[in-house]
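Work Package 3 (structural annotation) set out to generate three-dimensional models for the target panel prioritized at the project kickoff. During this period the team completed the workflow that converts sequence records into discrete structure tokens, so that structures can be stored uniformly alongside our sequence database. As a representative example, we reproduce one entry of 229 residues exactly as it appears in the project archive.
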Amino acid sequence: FGPGSGDTVSAVGDPHVTSITGEKFDLWVTGWSTFLQVPKNVEPNSVPKLLVTGNVQPYHAEKCAPAYLQTVKVTGSLIDHHEVMVRAGSLETSVPFGISLNGSAFIPIGSSGSSSFSSQSFSLHGKISEDEPGVWGPDAKLVIEVGAIMLTVTQHTEGRFDDSRSMLDVSVTGLDGVENVGGWLGVDGALSAGRAPPECLNVAFIAAGTHPRHDDDPEAVGFQSPHIW
């Protein structure tokens, strides 16, 4: 069953965040926050080389509901001060997964199943893919390459049409040799990630089958939205 079924659902399998230090933890802070910042410390009125922020929302109104990632924004001098925004949305609705560049209207992945953009400093490649046949159906993915750094935003969708709910996963590779990385995926770790309310500490979170973990790749850091069943 899915979120639109009216049944009570429970989640999550894996820790939401796997950081560059190998720390794994759940993120209880909602709203916009910093997932990755290079360098960690930036002088006032200066621009980071790379900044990845995300808007995390609770899956539903219950206090113990897990959080999911709804929107991702990427900026920084390494991408020539462009702004890339990624919005979650079921491909079967009128507001699907979309990509905005420098404040433009959100553009869905083309009818051909892929969309690309490139400049001298970075490239974007969006596509519809089926990475886990039998577990998830075809869904949207965006890969942003900035030199050796590769940022992947992958969407998973629960349910169908207007009863669906889409959520984003983020993973980053290529950070070897990058010093002073801040944010949830950097060295900030769980320090300000919030704590589960006391009544939620013993909640049994149930994983929805098997799906790739970010730590399958020892170089990857990332955030996984909950996978509900």
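The chain has a mean pLDDT of 82.
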